[in-house]
Design goal:
Radius of gyration: 27 Å
Structural class: mainly alpha
Helix content: 40-55%
Number of domains: 3
Shape: globular
Number of strands: 4
Strand content: 5-15%
Length: 371
């Protein structure tokens, strides 16, 4: 009769089918079967070592880099403590740990991290920063469309608060945070979130959560030939250095931030030629992400039709003006946090919201204002 058995080999697993006559269970048959099994395993093992490919799509990028000889960053967490990871998740998503149905000792009374940052990939591949493709990806993945860079893969980066962030927060605050993730987190918590600094314990928990969201090999746009180069056995030091550079070339190590002026009044299309579908998505997944009446932290302008809320007609009435009421102006300039109004509007860089997308939003708001 026919029997089958999994035989585990060094580097892989082979399913060996052997036909045995139960009436001829001789010593010779057993020896023959053993020889076949050894040969199958030997052949598989040999082929595995000729072309090893231990890194599947879910393999963390940092583990591949470290295996190639790259130095682990200061914020690297190799082994995740699940209790710390869960606490870090609460801090990022809710602003603090839950206690009896309420968030205890908030990092900020005005913002949480996910008001401005997603915790999922925002593009098919990690080297893509095109705003139009980012919007399309957000629509397909049903993601918010936010002004801050995603926290997914943040631990793989080497710089933060890049570009024009210095214009907003000043060199004194930005410089210590630009190449130190811990300092960047503290700056974001205290200044961007109008909150407090994290304790050492909270920082450790947040780093556990952020490290758990690092880039995976599937996020890199690598060809089969390039992957073969990376996993090649017996690489020389020069080849390992080349592999490290190749990997790092396939993701953004520091997201640029270019603050630009609003579209001049004479050049505004005022809804003409705008993409209504895109505009609706930006309004619902960007504007309402913070300005929805459903938000738990509501010390901000709320959009809606109820008493005290700002409707589409109110938004449209400011379009020709150059002040905080116009989406043309406020998306590019934001508002500053003040003592009596700690809640503020962040700036959308041109990398996070293109001029054409501003026109898409204008088209949707103007269309809705006429209903």
């Amino acid at each position: 009769f026919m029997t089958s058995k999994f035989i585990t080999c060094n580097g892989g697993m082979s399913l060996l089918f052997v036909k045995i006559d139960v009436n001829q269970d001789s010593t010779m048959n057993r020896i023959s079967i053993a020889i076949i099994a050894v040969l199958v395993c030997f052949g598989l093992t040999a082929s595995m070592f000729v072309q090893p490919n231990p890194y599947d799509g879910q393999t963390p990028v940092s583990s591949v880099l470290i295996a190639l000889g790259d130095e682990a960053p200061e914020h690297y967490v190799g082994t995740h403590d699940m209790a710390k990871l869960e606490k870090g998740k609460d801090l990022i998503i809710s602003g603090g740990p839950w206690n009896n149905g309420e968030v205890e000792y908030r990092l900020s009374n005005h913002f949480v991290c996910i008001d401005c940052h997603n915790i999922q990939p925002e593009a098919t591949f990690a080297d893509d920063n095109d705003p139009d493709r980012r919007l399309q990806y957000a629509k397909e993945a049903n993601l918010p469309y936010l002004p801050g860079s995603t926290l997914y893969g943040i631990t793989n980066r080497t710089s933060w608060f890049n570009g024009d962030h210095e214009k907003k927060y000043g060199k004194e605050l930005v410089e210590p945070a630009r190449h130190n993730l811990k300092n960047a987190v503290q700056l974001c918590s205290k200044e961007c979130s109008v909150g407090r600094e994290l304790t050492d314990e909270e920082m450790e928990s947040v780093l556990h959560f952020l490290n758990a969201m690092e880039l995976k090999m599937k996020d890199l746009n690598l060809s089969e030939e390039e992957l073969a180069q990376i996993v090649k056995v017996g690489q020389t030091p020069e080849e390992k250095s080349a592999s490290i550079l190749l990997i790092k070339s396939r993701y953004i190590e520091g997201y640029p931030a270019t603050f630009t002026e609003e579209i001049p009044k004479k050049e505004r299309k005022m809804g003409k030629e705008g993409n209504l579908e895109n505009g609706k998505w930006i309004y619902e997944k960007s504007c309402l992400h913070c300005h929805s009446p459903k938000k738990t932290i509501t010390d901000r302008t709320l959009f809606g039709t109820e008493k005290g809320q700002k409707d589409f007609k109110w938004l449209a009435s400011y379009f020709k003006k150059s002040n905080g009421g116009s989406i043309y102006w406020i998306t590019r300039h934001g508002t500053a946090s003040k003592d009596h109004i700690p809640q503020y509007m962040p700036i959308y860089s041109k990398e996070k919201l293109s001029d054409s997308q501003v026109e898409d939003l204008a088209a949707y708001i103007l269309t809705e204002s006429k209903k």
